[in-house]
Q: What sequence folds into this?
C-alpha cells in the first residue's frame, strides 16, 4: 500500500519538468492527483503520468491523475481547479505550488519592459501561489490538516550558496525570496490546523526551463552533473513523510539529494 493512499493532491504546472515528476511520484504512492498547466494536452498527459505511476507502484494501487487547463494567475481558473479536485477526490490534503516562470530581466531594461516582466513573473510565481493557497487552506482545514509545499530555489539559501543570485534575473530572484515570506508565515499561522508548510529550494535541475537558457544545448559540465526531476520528487515524498514544517529544504548539484536533519527555528530561512 502506498504511503499516500487516500490523499488528494493538487500540483500546479504539472505537465512537464519538476511538476510532472511530482505528480508521478505522488500518484505512485497512491495519492489522487489533480494538476493544472497552461498546455492544452493536460488530459493526455494525465493519462501518460497515470500509467507511469502504475508501473512504478507495481503490485500496489497508484492514485488517479486528472489534468486541468488552468492558469494559476487567474482566480476563475483556480476555482475550477479546486472544484475538480474536490468533486473527483472529495477534498484536498496536499498542495504543491510548483508553476513558475523565469526570464532575463536586467535592471537596465526600459521601464515598459520591466513592468511587463513584473506581471509575467509575479502573476505566476507569487500571485498564483497566494490565490491558490488561499483557496486550498479551508479545504485542508476541512480534512483536519495537510501540507503546502512551495517550490523555490537555492538562491534563497545564502548560507550555502554565496553569490548565486543571478544578476540579470532580479524579478525571478525577488519572487522566490518572497515565497519565503509565505512559507514562514503560513507555517506558523497554520500549525494549529495541523497544516505543514515548507519549501523545496533546488539548484540546477534538468528541465525545459533550464535547457531554455542555452537553447536546449547546456554546457557539458552542467549537463553531466545537474539533478534530475525524479530526485527532487523523491525529496518531496521524504519531506511529506517526515512531518516537519517551516523549512527551506536545499538540494545542491554534486551533493546527495536528501532531507537532512531538522533545523532549529532561527535557521529555517537561511539554510
Ligand atoms: N529547473 C531548475 O533548475 C529549477 C531550480 C530551482 C527552482 N525551480 C522551480 O521549479 C518550478 C518548476 O520549474 P521547471 O524547471 O520544471 O520549469 P518548466 O518550465 O520545465 O515547467 C514549468 C511548468 O509550469 C507551467 N506553467 C508556467 N506558468 C504557469 C501558469 N501561470 N499556470 C499554470 N502553469 C504554468 C508550464 O507550462 C510548465 O509546464 C518553478 O517554480 C521553478 O522556478 C526550477
A:
Amino acid at each position: 500500500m502506498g504511503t499516500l493512499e487516500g490523499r488528494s493532491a493538487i500540483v500546479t504546472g504539472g505537465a512537464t519538468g519538476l511538476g510532472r515528476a511530482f505528480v508521478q511520484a505522488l500518484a505512485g504512492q497512491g495519492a489522487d492527483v489533480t494538476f493544472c498547466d497552461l498546455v492544452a494536452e493536460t488530459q493526455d498527459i494525465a493519462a501518460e503520468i497515470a500509467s507511469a505511476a502504475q508501473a512504478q507502484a507495481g503490485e500496489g494501487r497508484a492514485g488517479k491523475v486528472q489534468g486541468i487547463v488552468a492558469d494559476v494567475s487567474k482566480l476563475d481558473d483556480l476555482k475550477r481547479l479546486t472544484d475538480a479536485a474536490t468533486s473527483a477526490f472529495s477534498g484536498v490534503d496536499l498542495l504543491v505550488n510548483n508553476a513558475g516562470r523565469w526570464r532575463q530581466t536586467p535592471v537596465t531594461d526600459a521601464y515598459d519592459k520591466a513592468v511587463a516582466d513584473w506581471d509575467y513573473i509575479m502573476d505566476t510565481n507569487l500571485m498564483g501561489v497566494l490565490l491558490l493557497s488561499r483557496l486550498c487552506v479551508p479545504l485542508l482545514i476541512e480534512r483536519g490538516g495537510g501540507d503546502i509545499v512551495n517550490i523555490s530555489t537555492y538562491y534563497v539559501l545564502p548560507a550555502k550558496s554565496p553569490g548565486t543570485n543571478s544578476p540579470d534575473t532580479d524579478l525571478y530572484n525577488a519572487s522566490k525570496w518572497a515565497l519565503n515570506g509565505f512559507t514562514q508565515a503560513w507555517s506558523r499561522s497554520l500549525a494549529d490546523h495541523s497544516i505543514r508548510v515548507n519549501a523545496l529550494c533546488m539548484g540546477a535541475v534538468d528541465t525545459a526551463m533550464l535547457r531554455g537558457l542555452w537553447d536546449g544545448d547546456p554546457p557539458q559540465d552542467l549537463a553531466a552533473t545537474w539533478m534530475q526531476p525524479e530526485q527532487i520528487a523523491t525529496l518531496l515524498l521524504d519531506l511529506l513523510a517526515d512531518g516537519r514544517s517551516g523549512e527551506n529544504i536545499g538540494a545542491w548539484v554534486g551533493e546527495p539529494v536528501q532531507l537532512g536533519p531538522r533545523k532549529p527555528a532561527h535557521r529555517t530561512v537561511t539554510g
